[in-house]
Structure formats: structure tokens, C-alpha cells
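agent> Task received from the user: take the single chain below, predict its 3D structure, and emit C-alpha cells. No templates, no multimer pairing.
agent> Plan: (1) validate residues, (2) run structure prediction, (3) serialize to C-alpha cells, (4) report one or two observations.
agent> Step 1 OK, no nonstandard residues flagged.
tool_call: predict_structure(input=
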Amino acid sequence: MKKQNKTKQAVKLHEGKTMYIIFLVMFIALLVVIDQLTKFAAINAKQLQLGFFCLKKAFNYGVSFGLLNINNVFIFALVTAISLAVIFACFAFIFMQVKKQARFNLFVLALCLLLAGTISNLIDRLAFNYVRDFIGFCYFAFPSFNLADLFNVTAVLILVVIWVKTRRETFIYA
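)
tool_result: status=success, residues=174
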């Protein structure tokens, strides 16, 4: 009887983790679709201004915010390889988190944002050989960017906050 209960508990736990992974994959896919749709709409739209932001269509051959913006095979291969490594690492960390605990936390959110941003920009890079950027600041010079870039920057900021908080707690209690 006890063995049967443990088996049922293990099955329920496995089902819960499977549903959690499905939720995370759907969340990432939703963010990718939103980014791709906004890129498509913005590239085909006329000039638009919303407060400080305006539509600035740009084709970025480099990395975020126009860095290394050179149409070069080496840059393309390097950025693609780094993107694939980031995608693999994020999935690995997510699966490790799911194995430990089946709950949504800031670390998992950051990984999902980083995955969505990286996948969406990689789709652009593979489909067009550049990333479609369209958001800019109207009143001062700053490279154009897109939602995927915002996902990536937000993810990195969350990861830095987690790292600083963890380091501070480790330092204080060590």
C-alpha cells in the first residue's frame, strides 16, 4: 500500500513538472510571437511617434543596440554561435530549476525572457541575415532596438539583481 502511494505521488509530481515545462515553453513562444509580430508591423508601418519613442526602422547586422553592426560572415557566425549557446544554457538551467522545484520564480522569468529575446533575434538573423529594429528615442541619438532586445536587457538586469542579492546574503552570513 505504501509503495502504491509513493508511486501515485511520483506520477503527480512528474505530471506537475511536465505541465510547468509546457507552460514555460508556451510563455516563451508567446513572447517570440509578440516580438515577431511587432517587428513585422513596424517594418511595414509609416512614421509614428509615441511620446519620447518613435518608429526608427533599422537593420542590425551586429548585436544589441547596433554594436558590431557590420554585414560580415564572421560576425554573423559568431553571433549565431553565441545565440545558440545562450539558448542551450537557458534551457539547461530551466530544466535544472524544474527538477529542483516546480514553481515560477524570478530566475526562471529571467531565463524565459532571455530565451525569447535570443530566439526571436536568431529567427531574424537566420531569415533575413539581420535583426529588424524599430524602437528609437525621438529627441536624442540612441541606436534602434526591438522588443527582443528589451527582453534580453530585462533578463540580464534581473539576473544581476539576483546575483548581487545572493552575493550580499552570502557575504553577510558567511
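agent> Step 4: summary for the user.
Residues 2-43 form the longest helix (42 residues).
agent> Done.
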